[in-house]
Design goal:
Keywords: Aminotransferase, Pyridoxal phosphate, Transferase. One of its GO terms (molecular function) is 8-amino-7-oxononanoate synthase activity. This is Aminotransferase class I/II-fold pyridoxal phosphate-dependent enzyme. Helices cover about 45% and strands about 15% of the residues. By secondary structure, it is an alpha+beta fold. A hairpin with a 2-residue loop joins β2 and β3 (about 40-45).
């Protein structure tokens, strides 16, 4: 039997997602003021962004960004390993390390990349088991899978479930 046309398959899957109310909607943010967002004419507190403290709207932060862009241009031009590790990055890493009382610090371009790096460093394919809450962010789950270790998940906020998964792991894992 012939496979359905790609457009038909996509249309069918979309219809199913709509029926299940599993369609993501991109909300248009009109204005921002710190952690508050205007969406559809209503002001809401945004708990879903990475700007938890509203720093992206702080005058001092915006002014520093404008100064840096005027001085250094917009963008690093490459990854840190190629030719994108600049004096400003080095200075920030050093200042963060000093502030926290550590010999060094390492900046990452996103939380996803940070999660990948940490789990690659801590977990191995051999015997490691990583136990995570079922509702952890996808970047944590992806990082664990890419590390190659065994991933065990427990129901959201279920401490006993987490303990069962840990106790069920092989000795030394």
């Amino acid at each position: 039997m012939a496979r359905p046309d790609l457009h038909e398959r996509i249309s069918s899957l979309r219809t199913l997602r709509v029926a299940q109310e599993r369609v993501r909607v991109r909300r248009l943010v009109g204005r921002r003021d710190g952690v508050r967002l205007e969406v559809d004419g209503r002001w809401l507190t945004g708990f879903c962004s990475n700007d938890y403290l509203g720093l992206s709207q702080q005058f001092e932060v915006v002014a520093a960004l404008q100064d840096a862009a005027a001085r250094d241009g917009a963008g690093a031009t490459a990854s840190h390993l190629i030719c994108g590790h600049h004096t400003a990055h080095e200075t920030l890493e050093r200042e963060i390390a000093e502030w926290l009382g550590y010999p060094s610090a390492l900046l990452f371009g996103s939380g996803f990349i940070a999660n990948l790096a940490v789990q690659q460093a801590l977990l191995s394919e051999d015997d490691d088991v990583c136990v995570q809450d079922r509702l952890n962010h996808a970047s944590l789950l992806d990082a664990t899978r890419l590390a190659g270790c065994r991933l065990r998940r427990y129901p959201h906020l279920d401490v006993e479930g987490a303990m069962r998964q840990l106790k069920g792991a092989p000795e030394g894992a």
